[in-house]
Design a protein that fits this description.
Strand content: under 5%
Largest sheet: 2 strands, antiparallel
Strand order of the largest sheet: 1-2
CATH topology: Hydantoin permease
Number of domains: 1
Shape: globular
Number of strands: 2
Oligomer: single chain
Helix content: 55-70%
CATH superfamily: Hydantoin permease
CATH architecture: Orthogonal Bundle
Order of helices and strands: HHHHHHHHHHHHHHHHEEHHH
CATH class: Mainly Alpha
Number of helices: 19
Length: 494
C-alpha cells in the first residue's frame, strides 16, 4: 500500500460518468451519496422476477398459502436484519464490504470468504439468466439464448458504469414497475386476477416445507450481505447508522414480502409453474396488457439486479487479487473483470437444465450455508468486538495490525461451516443430494444455517478475548492521522 498519494479531488455532489473507484477507500470529499437513495435501491433490488419463484417453494412441498406467507415474512425479517446491519458499515468506513473483512480474516486470509462470496454473485446471475430465459419464453415466446445474451450485455454495461448508474437505473425502473404491480395486486385482492377455482392439490402445514420456505426467504436477503455496504460507502461518514439500517430494512423487506406472497398466490390459486408467465396471466385477467407490462418490467428489474451482482463480483475479484498481489484498482481492471465474469455466468447458465424453481432453491440454499459463518464473524467483530473502530490504512497492508492471516476469523468460519454439515438439507443438484444425520432425525427440517450462525458467532467472541485493544486504538489513531490532511490511500487511476 502507498500512503503518500493524495486522493483525486471530485467536485462536491458530482461524480464522473464512469465510476473511478473500486476497492479503495472513498474520502469524505467524494461522499456524494444520499440516504433516501437506499430504500428505493433495495426495494427494487427485490421488486423483480427472482422474488416471485421463492413463493413457489413452500407450495411445491404442500405448504398452504397462509403458512407460506407466514414463513416468508419471518424469513425475510430475519435475513434483512443481517443485511441492514452490514449496510451501516459503509458510511462509517467508506470501503467495500469484503475489504473491511480483512480485519477479521487478515489481508490474505480474506480470500477464504471471498471465494464463498464470488460463488454467491455467480450463482445469482446464473439463476437469474435461467429465470429470464424460461420466463420470457413462456410469456412472450422469446428465444432463451437471445434473452441470455442481451441480459448479460446489459448487466455488464450497467456494472461498468458503476455505483451511481446502478442507483439511477433502479429508481427509473421502480417508478414504472411500482404502479403496475400495485394495480395487479389490487386485482388479486378484489378477485379480478382470476384464481377462483378449487385446486386438486391438498395444501396444509408441515415443518419441512415451512422451514424450507423460511430458510429460502432468509437466504434471499442474507445473500445481499457481502455487498450491501458497497452501495452505502458513498454516504457521508456522519450518516446515522440507525437511519441506514432502517432505510435498507424497509426497502429490502417490504418488496420481497410483497412479491414472494404474490408468487405463492400464483402457484396455488393459478397453478403457475413459471413466475413471469403467472404474473402475465394474472395481470391480463385484470385488464388487457397489464400483465404484459408487469412481466416485462419485472424482467428488466431482474436484469438490472444482474448488473448489481456483476458490480459486486468485480469488487470481490479485485479484492481477491489484491490480497494475493497488490494491484492498482484502475478502470481498466474493473472493465476486464466485469467482462470475464459475464462470460463465466453466461456459459454456466447455458449448461443448466433444471427448472427455474429448483435452480432458485438450490442456489439460495448453497449461498446461505456458505455465507452464514462469514456474516456471523463480520457482524460480531463490528458490533461487539471492535465496535466500528478500525485502522483503515492497516487494511491495505500485510504489515498492519490485522496481519496476512487472522486465525480468529478463519477458525470461527471453519467451525461454523463444519457445524452446519450434520444439519444440512441440500436440494437436488444434478443427480446428487444430501441430508445430514441430524436433519434426518429432525424429519428433514433444515436448521443448518441457524446452527452455523450461533456457533461461528460464539467461536469468534471467544477467540477475540485475546485481542489487545490498546494496540488497536494506537493503530486507529495513526490511520486517522494519515487519512486526515496530508495523505491517503492511493486512489484509483482513471
Amino acid at each position: 500500500m502507498t500512503t503518500t498519494a493524495k486522493p483525486v479531488p471530485t467536485p462536491k455532489n458530482a461524480a464522473p460518468l464512469i465510476e473511478v473507484r473500486s476497492i479503495d477507500w472513498v474520502p469524505d470529499n467524494e461522499r456524494h451519496g444520499k440516504l433516501w437513495h437506499q430504500a428505493p435501491l433495495w426495494f427494487l433490488g427485490n421488486f423483480q422476477y427472482f422474488s416471485i419463484p421463492i413463493g413457489f417453494i413452500g407450495p411445491s412441498m404442500g405448504l398452504s398459502l397462509g403458512w407460506t406467507i407466514v414463513a416468508s415474512i419471518l424469513g425475510i425479517g430475519v435475513g434483512t436484519i443481517f443485511m441492514a446491519f452490514h449496510a451501516s458499515q459503509g458510511p462509517t468506513m467508506g470501503l467495500p464490504q469484503m475489504i473491511q473483512s480483512r480485519a477479521q480474516f487478515g489481508y490474505r486470509g480474506v480470500v477464504v470468504p471471498l471465494i464463498a462470496t464470488l460463488f454467491t454473485y455467480l450463482a445469482f446471475n446464473v439463476a437469474d439468466t435461467v429465470l429470464l430465459g424460461d420466463g420470457l419464453m413462456s410469456s412472450f415466446g422469446w428465444n432463451p439464448t437471445v434473452v441470455a445474451v442481451v441480459a448479460a450485455l446489459g448487466a455488464a454495461a450497467l456494472a461498468i458504469f458503476g455505483h451511481d448508474w446502478v442507483h439511477k437505473a433502479f429508481r427509473i425502473l421502480l417508478y414504472i414497475s411500482f404502479p403496475l404491480m400495485t394495480i395487479l395486486t389490487i386485482g388479486v385482492l378484489t378477485g379480478n386476477a382470476g384464481g377462483g377455482g378449487d385446486s386438486t392439490i391438498q395444501y396444509g402445514f408441515n415443518w419441512g416445507a415451512f422451514m424450507a420456505q423460511f430458510a429460502a426467504s432468509a437466504a434471499y436477503n442474507i445473500t445481499y450481505a457481502p455487498y450491501v455496504s458497497d452501495y452505502s460507502r458513498y454516504l457521508p461518514s456522519k450518516t446515522r447508522s440507525r437511519s441506514v439500517i432502517a432505510a435498507v430494512f424497509f426497502g429490502a423487506s417490504s418488496s420481497a414480502i410483497w412479491l414472494i406472497a404474490l408468487g405463492a398466490w400464483l402457484a396455488i390459486r393459478l397453478g403457475a409453474t413459471d413466475g413471469l408467465a403467472g404474473l402475465q396471466l394474472a395481470g391480463n385477467n385484470v385488464f388487457i396488457h397489464l400483465g404484459d407490462a408487469a412481466a416485462l418490467f419485472s424482467a428488466l428489474a431482474l436484469a438490472a439486479t444482474m448488473g448489481m451482482n456483476a458490480y459486486g463480483g468485480m469488487l470481490t475479484v479485485l479484492t481477491t487479487v489484491d490480497s494475493i498481489r497488490p494491484i492498482k484498482p484502475t478502470r481498466k481492471a474493473r472493465v476486464i473483470t466485469i467482462l470475464v465474469l459475464t462470460v463465466v455466468w453466461y456459459l454456466v447458465a447455458s449448461l443448466i437444465s433444471a427448472g427455474s424453481v429448483t435452480t432458485v432453491f438450490s442456489a439460495l440454499t448453497l449461498m446461505l450455508y456458505l455465507l452464514v459463518p462469514w456474516t456471523a464473524t463480520n457482524l460480531t467483530d463490528y458490533f461487539f468486538v471492535r465496535k466500528g473502530h478500525y485502522a483503515i490504512t492497516d487494511l491495505f497492508t500485510t504489515k498492519g495490525i490485522y496481519g496476512a492471516w487472522s486465525w480468529r476469523g478463519l477458525l470461527a468460519f471453519a467451525i461454523g461451516l463444519a457445524a452446519e454439515i450434520p444439519f444440512m438439507v441440500l436440494p437436488q443438484i444434478g443427480s446428487w443430494t444430501y441430508t445430514g444425520p441430524v436433519a434426518t432425525l429432525l424429519g428433514g427440517v433444515d436448521i443448518a444455517w441457524l446452527v452455523g450462525l450461533l456457533v461461528a458467532s460464539a467461536a469468534y467472541l471467544l477467540f477475540s478475548r485475546s485481542l489487545d485493544m490498546n494496540i488497536e486504538r494506537d493503530a486507529q489513531a495513526r490511520s486517522e492521522h494519515q487519512l486526515g490532511h496530508d495523505s491517503a490511500i492511493t486512489p484509483a487511476h482513471p
